[in-house]
Design the sequence.
């Protein structure tokens, strides 16, 4: 049997979560940088279609056409600090951090529709109100954030882009490290994680390079590499899968100078 009309229409809307939907006045945004990766996977369950249709509008971050986006202003109650997770995957980590840190405003960026729907399910189940979602390329969001507006940033298990010709697509690199440095407050933590050996080497090289001059390894780390995942760093579903398959995650922490 085919989908009902309402579900088919709702799923059609989830497929269109793109730059054109993020402006405050409904028109298209400025030309976006090239994006690589999937926007949508398997069809969403009926419940997640409903959440995307009803809950996401209240949680979604709209980029202003002009000027900067004030992070604290997008929350109903001004948070003590704003934290940002780039590429939150299924949302397990972001939801856990939001629940454990209710005074912080959590902003998550994720272009994968299924990941957005997964986070919405966590928000709905746990009754989280200190989360906001930008369902698109994080670079668009970073370019609209004011200087020194983010108190903590997470980039956990990003796509390793293992082929040499694709290395420039890796998020941590010359294009985005200055972006992160600009929006992060002095003393803010940058937390990274990966289970891919090639990306581990890439992190080490990039964070020791000139583009990462604004960051210094966190105390207790070895050039940023932590001996273990800290207690206040919840595991992600992807991380747990990697461990079951015999891949050892590596955890990094750097501090904005």
Sequence:
């Amino acid at each position: 049997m085919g989908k009902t009309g309402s579900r088919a229409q709702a799923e059609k809307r989830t497929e269109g979560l793109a730059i054109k939907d993020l402006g405050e006045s409904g028109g298209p945004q400025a030309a976006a940088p090239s994006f690589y990766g999937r926007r949508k996977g398997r069809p969403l369950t009926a419940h997640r279609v409903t959440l995307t249709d009803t809950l996401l509008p209240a949680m979604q971050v709209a980029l202003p056409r002009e000027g900067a986006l004030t992070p604290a202003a997008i929350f109903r109650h001004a948070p003590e600090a704003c934290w940002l997770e780039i590429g939150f995957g299924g949302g397990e980590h972001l939801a856990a951090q939001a629940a454990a840190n209710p005074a912080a405003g959590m902003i998550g960026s994720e272009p994968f529709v299924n990941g957005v729907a997964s986070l919405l399910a966590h928000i709905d189940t746990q009754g989280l109100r200190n989360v906001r979602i930008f369902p698109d390329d994080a670079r668009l969001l970073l370019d609209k954030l004011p200087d020194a507006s983010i108190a903590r940033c997470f980039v956990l298990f990003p796509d390793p882009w293992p082929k040499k010709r694709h290395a420039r697509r890796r998020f941590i690199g010359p294009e985005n490290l200055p972006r992160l440095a600009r929006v992060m407050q002095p003393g803010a933590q940058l937390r990274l994680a990966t289970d891919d050996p090639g990306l581990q080497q890439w992190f080490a090289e990039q964070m020791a390079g000139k583009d990462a001059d604004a960051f210094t390894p966190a105390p207790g780390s070895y050039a940023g590499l932590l001996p273990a995942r800290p207690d206040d760093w919840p595991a992600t579903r992807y991380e747990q899968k990697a461990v079951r398959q015999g891949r050892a995650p590596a955890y990094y922490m750097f501090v904005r100078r």
About this structure: The first strand starts at residue 81 and ends at 86. DSSP finds nine helices and seven strands in the chain. Strands lie at 81-86, 104-109, 131-134, 150-156, 184-194, 215-217, 250-256. Residues 113-126 form the longest helix (14 residues).
